[in-house]
Structures are given as C-alpha cells and as structure tokens.
C-alpha cells in the first residue's frame, strides 16, 4: 500500500462525517503528528517513519550488526556478499 494511501486512511479515521466533509479538517495534520507533550496526538509522519526504517535496514546490512534471518538472506541471496554501495538497482546498467 503506498504511503499516501496509508496516510489517507489515518486521516479519514479522524475526519469522517457530514459536518467535516464540507469544511475540511478542523486541525492541521502536522499538529496531530506532534508528540503528546507538545500538544499533538503522537501520530507518526508515515513518510518520515518509512525513511527511517529503510535507513535502519541499510545500516544493519552495511555494518553486519543484525544477524536476523532476513539480513542473512539479503546479504547472501540478493547481495551475494558484495558491498552495498557497488550494487546496481534492477534495470540499471
């Protein structure tokens, strides 16, 4: 599911109904993503969370610090024990 669709589902969870459909959102989405201590609801920015998760995966693959089955499979099967920075994306020449 694309990130914008996930965020759309999150927004519609809060703002579904007749009285809000005409006037739009009553609260800015960015303010809802603030932590509780800052007055928000603590919702996650899906795009930022996704970026952080991808970087964490790359970090584990580069440092060999994660010994999970997934990391081992990626290193041995997809990367074939090559350096991450020398790999080419599918379809890239």
TrEMBL record:
Protein's UniProt name: Uncharacterized protein
User: From which source organism is this entry?
Assistant: Lithocarpus litseifolius
């Amino acid at each position: 599911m694309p990130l914008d669709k996930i965020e759309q589902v999150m927004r519609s969870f809060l703002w579904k109904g007749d009285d809000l459909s005409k006037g739009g959102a009553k609260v800015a989405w960015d303010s809802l993503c603030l932590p509780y201590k800052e007055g928000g609801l603590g919702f996650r920015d899906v795009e930022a969370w996704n970026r952080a998760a991808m970087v964490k995966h790359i970090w584990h693959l580069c440092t060999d610090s994660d010994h999970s089955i997934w990391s081992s499979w990626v290193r041995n099967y997809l990367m074939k024990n090559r350096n991450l920075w020398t790999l080419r994306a599918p379809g890239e020449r």
